[in-house]
Amino acid sequence: MNAETLHVQMFGTFSLSYAGRTISCSESRSKLLWNMLAYLVCHRGEFVSAEELSAVIWKSEKNGNPSSAMRTAIHRARQMLSELVDDPSVQLLISKNGGYLWNPEVETVVDTDEFDRLAVSLSGSSDDLEAGLAALELYEGKFLPMQSSELWVMPVQAYYQNVFTAIVDRVIPLLEEQKRYEEDITICRKALEFDPYNETFYQHLMRALLAEGRRQEVMQVYEEMSKLLLTAFGVMPDQESRALYREALQTDTRGSVISPEDAIARLSEQDEIRSALICDYDFFRMVYQAQARVVVRSGQVIHIALLTLKPLSRRDVSERSLSLAMDNLEQHLGRSLRKGDVITRCSASQFLVMLPSANYENSCKVCRRFISAFEKKYPHAPVYVDFFVQPLMPSTRS
Q1: For the sheet containing 99-102, what is the strand order?
Q2: Structural domain total, the chain
Q3: Is 109 a member of any domain?
Q4: What is the CA radius of gyration of the chain?
Q5: Is 343 a member of any domain?
Q6: Does residue 41 contact residue 110 with C-beta atoms inside 8 Å?
Q7: Strand 99-102 and strand 107-110: pairing?
């Protein structure tokens, strides 16, 4: 690192490094001071008037003497910067004509500048890959995450998140063309850390894992995504995601013939069965459709219970509390129901349960029994469980 160059990181944190020394906003410092320094660094090369800086930094502060507060803050900021640059001849922050200026004579390298340069260099050709990878490596997190609540930060943060997403969308197909799947997987996982609800990223990740033969991981990714989308938005994964999941479920038998014993072994569960079968919605739907075909001829009695978590009071239940209650209810259902029963989440607040060989009265008794046990186990939950039981309808297309 050049001793006369100031290096600034604004992705994932806010830190300044000079001559082997670093100060960071993660240290126990005034948030107001760091917000002020971040604004001045972002507007380096520009004169920032005291009025502008006061309006941005002290917008919510009730101070009878803003001019005095400004002078005090600038003094404290200079003291903090002196820990980084102890040479009195090097001033990072200059006062000028009633305003402030980040010293243009101090060479300053900011990660956002390099990120912007690389993003602009992407031309849509195959040469984009290395530049795109370099840009993604620079993006270590949201722009100024500790200042996320500041109004001036919000649009800049959204801008860089959108640019990051666009670069990921450009880079991943290029990696797939070159069969660089491990790098593809790493980038997809990083992208999902910053944008966990982007289903396209999940699909890219599942494709790369499939190409590497990591089918178990594909199923795990799909199940995590399904739970997240259900909890956050009450929606199921789209058709493409389900197709990738079904592909992962298939065992690769190309070029080989398996014995009857091997076929049964592959179909059988390997672990000890200790609870009811908890599955994703897509699998539950296939089981339902298979049973709907069977009951046409067999006359077997199967009932479906719809369980819904509802708030105890008129106030809405927070997303976190609802998610915790759903997790607790899922575990309780798995332990309470028979091993042959099938359970799935069908929305952010609902479960479907398939109860084979149970008539309507018995199915209702089962629901009341495990709901009562659930409420005793979690007496302080802000929700209660409502249920509705109906028979599985025979397929009319058989």
Answers
A1: 48-49, 99-102, 93-96
A2: 3
A3: yes
A4: 29
A5: yes
A6: yes
A7: unpaired
Domain CATH code at residue 229: 1.25.40.10
DSSP assignments along 190-254, one per residue: HHHHH-TT-HHHHHHHHHHHHHTT-HHHHHHHHHHHHHHHHHHHS----HHHHHHHHHHHS---T
Question: 314 and 210: one domain?
Answer: no
172 & 294 share domain: no
Structural domain harbouring 346: 277-391
- Three-class SS of residue 54? helix
pLDDT tens, the chain, 398 aa long: 445 788 999 999 999 998 888 888 877 667 888 888 899 999 888 888 888 888 887 764 555 566 677 778 888 888 888 888 877 777 888 887 778 888 888 888 999 999 999 988 886 666 688 889 999 999 999 999 988 888 899 999 999 999 999 999 989 999 998 999 999 999 999 999 999 999 999 999 999 999 999 988 998 999 899 888 888 887 888 889 989 988 888 755 554 565 676 666 666 666 667 788 888 888 888 899 888 888 877 777 889 999 999 998 878 888 889 989 999 999 999 998 988 899 999 888 999 999 988 889 999 999 999 999 999 999 999 999 999 999 988 876 65
Strand partners, 385: 309
CATH of the domain at 313: 3.30.70.270
| Domain closes at, from 148, 176, 204 | 176
**Contacts of range 23-31, beta carbons closer than 8 Å, 24 or more positions apart:** 23/80, 23/81, 23/83, 23/84, 25/146, 25/147, 26/146, 29/80, 30/76, 31/146, 31/147
Residue 97 tokens read as 């004509």
pTM check: above 0.90 = no
Q: Is residue 396 part of a domain?
A: no
Give the number of C-alpha atoms closer than 13 A to the C-alpha of residue 219, restricted to the C-beta side: 14
Is 267 among the domain residues?
A: no
**Domain CATH number, residue 148:** 1.10.10.10
Amino acid at 191: A
Tell me, rounded to whole angstroms, the distance of Cα 26 from its chain centroid: 23
Could you tell me if 296 and 378 lie in one domain? yes
**Looking at 151, 176, 201, which one is the last position of a domain?**
176
